[in-house]
């Protein structure tokens, strides 16, 4: 019984010695790499958690990139509509002058030339691109949304060539619900500015400006007078639409800020899950070195005692 117990003790001491060597290797590897694990076999639970965090970070990064691009588009579109509003104010001022009884047909013909230049500026702004994409063409972003149909035969006639679909960006993200609402970041230009070719009697800026232009060319004072109120309404509608785009842009910026904070928190969790606490690891290394020294001494004593028994 004494011999069996001694043999078991010897085996346990040797196993502890081997375990101390393995522990020392693991701690040394962690300090060298700065990571608690390198392969799934080192720590399956921690590796799974890191993979989950990496997926969240990847999805969030894409959402942030798309949201920033969408916010930039909306900011540019708001600025463009502000400029269109300024041009409409100029057109209204021209209408007030041209409605005066003292204006002759020649005066109004000259006024028509001024209005044509203003209309060209409006169309040019409406055909603005962000990068390689037109802003006011819905999702048909590769071609200009507006063009003059035939300036000679149909003065002031502008047709819309875009579509009425919208690109969107996500307003939020969480691991449990990846889609937390979509925000449109494109606009169908005819819904803001109209289409004077397809809808010449519409109340949007392009049809109103065309009727004003025709009134000037035909010296039609009643039509010119009506254009004053019509232009005033278009100024309000464009200003209101610009405000809507500005509200969207600010909402998306808020989303980006929130997701950037979420990204920081996820990176912190990843660091806590993967990175080695170096001071703690060094302390553990010293402890394992001491234990290894003790187990080595115990192993030598066992070997010496075994030799004494065998050769005594």
Automatic annotation (TrEMBL):
GO molecular function, one term: structural molecule activity
UniProt keyword annotation of Ribosomal protein present: no
Keyword Protease: no
UniProt keyword annotations, A-Z: Cell projection, Cilium, Flagellum
InterPro entries: Flagellin (IPR001492), Flagellin_N (IPR001029)
Occurrences of domain Flagellin N-terminal (ranges): 19-140
GO CC field: bacterial-type flagellum
Domain of life: Bacteria
Name this protein carries in UniProt: Flagellar biosynthesis protein FlgL
């Amino acid at each position: 019984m004494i011999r069996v117990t001694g043999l078991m003790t010897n085996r346990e001491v040797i196993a502890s010695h081997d375990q101390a060597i393995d522990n020392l290797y693991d701690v040394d590897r962690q300090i060298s790499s700065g990571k608690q694990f390198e392969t799934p076999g080192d720590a399956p639970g921690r590796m799974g958690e890191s993979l989950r965090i990496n997926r969240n970070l990847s999805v969030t990064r894409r959402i942030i990139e798309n949201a920033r691009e969408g916010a930039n588009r909306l900011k540019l579109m708001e600025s463009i509509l502000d400029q269109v509003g300024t041009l409409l104010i100029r057109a209204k001022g021209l209408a007030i002058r041209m409605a005066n009884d003292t204006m002759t047909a020649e005066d109004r013909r000259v006024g028509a030339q001024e209005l044509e230049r203003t209309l060209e500026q409006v169309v040019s702004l409406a055909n603005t691109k962000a990068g390689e994409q037109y802003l006011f063409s819905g999702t048909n972003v590769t071609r200009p949304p507006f063009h003059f149909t035939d300036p000679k035969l149909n003065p002031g006639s502008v047709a819309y060539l875009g579509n009425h679909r919208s690109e969107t960006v996500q307003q939020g993200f969480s691991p449990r619900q990846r889609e937390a609402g979509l925000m449109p970041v494109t606009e169908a230009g005819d819904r803001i500015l109209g289409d004077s070719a397809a809808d010449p009697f519409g109340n949007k800026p392009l049809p109103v400006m065309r009727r004003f232009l025709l009134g000037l060319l035909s010296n039609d004072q009643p039509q010119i007078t009506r254009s004053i109120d019509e232009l005033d309404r278009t100024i309000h509608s464009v200003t209101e639409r610009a405000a809507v785009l500005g509200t969207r842009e600010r909402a998306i910026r808020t989303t980006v800020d929130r997701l950037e904070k979420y990204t920081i928190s996820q990176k912190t969790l990843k660091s806590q899950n993967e990175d080695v606490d170096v001071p703690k690891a060094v302390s553990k290394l010293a402890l394992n070195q001491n234990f290894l020294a003790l187990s080595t001494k115990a192993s030598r004593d066992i070997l010496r005692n075994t030799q004494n028994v065998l050769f005594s």
